[in-house]
Amino acid sequence: METKRTTFNNRLLPYLLLAPQLIITLIFFIWPAAQAFKSSFEREDPFGMSTVFVGIQHYQRLLEDPNYIDALLRTMVFAVCVTSLAMILGLAFAAAVDRLTRTSRIYTTLLVWPYAVAPVVAGVLWWFVFNTSTGLLPFFLQKIGFKWDHDLNGTHAMILISIAAAWKQISYNFLFFLAGLQSVPHSLMEAAAIDGSGPVKRFFTISLPLLSPTTFFLFIINVNYAMFDTFPIVDATTAGGPAQATTTLVYKVYQDGFVGLNLGSSSAQSVMLMMIVMVLTFVQFRYVERRVQY
């Protein structure tokens, strides 16, 4: 079978087609990253009137700062909680909708809606739900003898931002898991059913192994989401409190840079966060991908 190849008579046309995306990437990603990397080696006064080169002094202070180490550990716990909760619930909803025949489109539409909600709006919604004065959940929890107070209890605050962040990401995971489940060959499921395998056994022995590429992709996306994209949720719900109990790395960059006006340390933290995510992504591709069955 002869394949057709697209040829461009004008050699500049491919570059012109790529130019808009390349310009956007350069202006909004490459240039800010380069500026942050440069600023991480400098000390600048809050008004930007003078700049002094200090080398790796900011990085040394970060590694010696117990608050930064606490924020790093806190971010790791937060990322694990958000990734686990969002992926498990997304897979559970996808498996439930995949078994439906007539109303699957209705449930799919309802489950996708949270993804259209802005992160800060999601944070405010869950803040109202868990509000100690007017929230429904604290009211019912108090009825069973459990006092909820995320304004004073750091553990409660971490649970709040983890639920809010995971709720925002469940829809994204649901869509990919549902697409993966619907692409599983029906012949395999029918053969397993004929052999006497029940729905649960078919899911864990056939569907779940075939979903490993999708699971691996979503694992990387969810970790990056928890590390980078949860700033609006933290800011809208707890603002890093109480007593910095919910101050993650990305929120600490904001606190030190925009609130504390320590631009050099904030830039160093952003570079460190980028390096951490790059190392985690490398480890995932280097070791976790080995277990993926394509």
UniProtKB/TrEMBL annotation:
Membrane topology: Multi-pass membrane protein
Pfam families according to UniProt: BPD_transp_1 (PF00528)
Annotated family: Belongs to the binding-protein-dependent transport system permease family.
Subunit relationships: The complex is composed of two ATP-binding proteins (UgpC), two transmembrane proteins (UgpA and UgpE) and a solute-binding protein (UgpB).
Keyword Cell membrane: yes
Main location: membrane
Keyword vocabulary terms for this entry: Cell inner membrane, Cell membrane, Membrane, Transmembrane, Transmembrane helix, Transport
Annotated localization: Cell inner membrane; Cell membrane
Transmembrane feature ranges: 12-34, 71-94, 106-129, 157-181, 202-221, 268-288
Protein's job: Part of the ABC transporter complex UgpBAEC involved in sn-glycerol-3-phosphate (G3P) import. Probably responsible for the translocation of the substrate across the membrane.
Name this protein carries in UniProt: sn-glycerol-3-phosphate transport system permease protein UgpA
NCBIfam families, per database record: PRK10561.1
Ranges where the ABC transmembrane type-1 domain occurs: 72-284
Keyword ATP-binding: no
